């Protein structure tokens, strides 16, 4: 994702801090967020920051929205942006 797109997402998430996936996606991760959080590297949890996030099959984006809400994501590459 280009930097201006990341900036746009940050602005949108500051306006809508509780943004959630708007699609019910087969294989969605909403129900798995607690388990996925427990599996994050401790360095990310301690730092509160993700240098680069890559998700080639973003689907409804549940995990991305969760991460964006709870961590500073410096650079993100989602779906067709790869």
Structural class based on helices, strands and sheet pairing: alpha+beta
Q: Output the strand order for the largest sheet.
A: 1-2
How many H/I helices? Answer: 4
SSE string, helices as H and strands as E: HHHEHE
Largest sheet: 2 strands, parallel
How much of the sequence lies in strands comes to 15-25%
Radius of gyration: 12 Å
| Low-pLDDT ranges | none
Number of strands: 2
Between the first and last Cα atoms, what is the distance in angstroms?
Answer: 8 Å
Helix content: 40-55%
State the shape.
Answer: globular
Quote the average pLDDT: 79
Q: What attributes characterize this protein structure?
A:
82 residues, alpha+beta, two-stranded parallel ribbon, 4 helices, 2 strands, 17% strand
Characterise the protein shown here.
The protein has 4 helices and 2 strands. The chain is of the alpha+beta class and 82 residues long. The model has no long low-confidence stretch (mean pLDDT 79). It has a two-stranded parallel ribbon with strand order 1-2. The chain is globular and about 30 Å long. It has helices spanning 3-15, 33-38, 42-47, 62-70, and strands at residues 49-55, 72-78.
């Amino acid at each position: 994702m280009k930097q201006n797109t990341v900036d746009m997402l940050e602005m949108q998430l500051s306006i809508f801090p509780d943004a959630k996936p708007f699609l019910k996606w087969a294989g969605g991760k909403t129900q798995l967020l607690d388990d996925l959080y427990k599996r994050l590297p401790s360095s990310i949890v301690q730092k509160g920051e993700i240098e680069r996030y890559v998700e080639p099959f973003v689907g409804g984006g549940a995990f991305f929205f969760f991460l964006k809400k709870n961590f500073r994501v410096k650079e993100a590459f989602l779906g067709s942006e790869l």
